[in-house]
Amino acid sequence: MVVMFMPSQVGATTTTPLPYTANPLKLLVYDAVLCLSCIRYLPDILMPLRPCYSGKLDELYPSRGNLTALTIHGVLIVYQIAFILSLPALFFLPIYVCILYIASVFILNNKICAFLNGRHRFLVSHVPLPNYGHESEHWIFINGVGVGQHWLQSNIDRLSLTFGRKITGVHNDTAGIIFDVIQCLIQRCFCYATEDVRDAYVFVKEAILNTKYKKIVLILHSQGAVEGGLILDWLFDTLDEKALGKLEIYTFGNAANHWNNPIRRYTKQDQPEKCIPHIEHYVNSEDFVAMWGVLNFMKIPGRYLGDVFIRQGAGHLLNQHYLDTMFPLDHDQKPMLEENGFLEQNIKVIGCESTFYNTDFKMAAKTLRDNIGESALKIRNCSRLWRYRNGRTPDR
User: Which residues cross the membrane (predicted)?
Assistant: First the structure.
């Protein structure tokens, strides 16, 4: 099986409005149509159901916490679908009745979601780690659609096991899968910052400005990437290039409609250097959320910065469908396997006209093959995140 790989773009000269600067109402209509066109893949958010290689850390493993979360989500899905189907009837009711009805629906929805969300904005991984000596690094994770505190804790514990670092999770509260998807569209079309976005922005900025840390690694999943994109745009406005140079970003199932990374300077060889030195996006080809996110908008020249790795397969859950397939653990949840099928797969270089320093994508493929070799052109040769496995640190 071949993994599609699109090297990072650098920008394009075009008068077409960017995906987040056009008329927000038109964007919302476009996004709604785009989302509906992919609706048949919605059940694939939870598919495949098995296997659960990470045991109780996987979202669909039959543990008490997971079964509770899945039951509540099932109730919310039925509740929210019933609400949406009832909306046409409101045209025949007095306005005050409509307001009371909608308000009561959202109040009850929040009450139900409280069982998932808990009370804490920030969580820290509980995994005991060897002393790898990474005190100068700060790893931060923002979760995606449908994740309560139980799944967030599982996410950061799984990331900690994989990369041998303490992970701090910033909780993006869930309102139920359907309402979360709607919130995604509103956030990215109107650049709307919810409370968790504002809290995360302050947290990430403080980490970057803290002289104790030499490197900030931001891992984003699903809707968390929409929020991370908003945070990143704010950071470009408020921090200098030296501070931004400490940041690295890795996303999974990215739901954002753009990903910026301005050029800060050109080298003597006239090659551009970016503000954020390393950005990578990992995505499943049949991930419903990614279909109206990274998989759609990466086709626009110059508007999705960072290397994109596209694995052939379905699933949206971070642990079960991304980490278990791309960064699997050894037996009994020991550190990550040094050898696995995903990292050994050959890559097929794809791109658009602004990919790889404004060169043709065929030239990008030729450059990679010349540097690495035809037979050795695999994921492990291009993935920086893989080089962090089991507490390691990538070469400069």
Answer: 91-109
Euclidean distance between CA atoms 201 and 203, whole angstroms: 5
Judge whether 166 lies within some domain: yes
Q: What is the rounded distance in angstroms from the CA atom of residue 341 to the CA atom of residue 270?
A: 37
Total structural domains in the chain? 1
Task: Please give the Cα distance from 249 to 385 (Å, whole number).
Answer: 9
pTM: 0.89
Q: List, in sequence order, every residue forming a beta bridge with 307; answer none if it has no partner.
A: 280
Report residue 359's pLDDT band, with 50, 70 and 90 as the boundaries.
Answer: very low
- In order, the DSSP letters of 130-143 are -----TTEEEEEE-
Contacts of 224 (CB under 8 A, 6+ apart): 141, 142, 143, 144, 172
Q: What is the pLDDT of residues 195-251, one digit of tens each?
A: 999 999 999 999 999 999 999 999 999 999 999 999 999 999 999 989 999 999 999
Residue 192 buriedness (CB in 10 A; 0-12 / 13-18 / 19+): middle
- What digits encode the pLDDT tens for the residues 132-157? 788 999 999 999 999 999 999 999 99
Residue 378 lies in a domain: yes
On whether residue 75 sits in a domain, the answer given is no
Q: Cβ(19)–Cβ(311) under 8 Å? A: no
165 and 391 Cβ atoms separated by less than 8 Å: yes
CA-based angle 20:197:210, to the nearest 5? 115
Q: What is the DSSP string of 254-295?
A: ---S-B---EEEE-TTS-EEESSSEEEEEEEEE-HHHHTTHH
Domain with 293 in it: 3-67+121-391
Q: Which helix or strand (DSSP H or E) is residue 311 part of?
A: strand 307-314
**Cα(229)–Cα(146) distance, rounded to whole angstroms?**
19
Residue 111 belongs to some domain of the structure: no
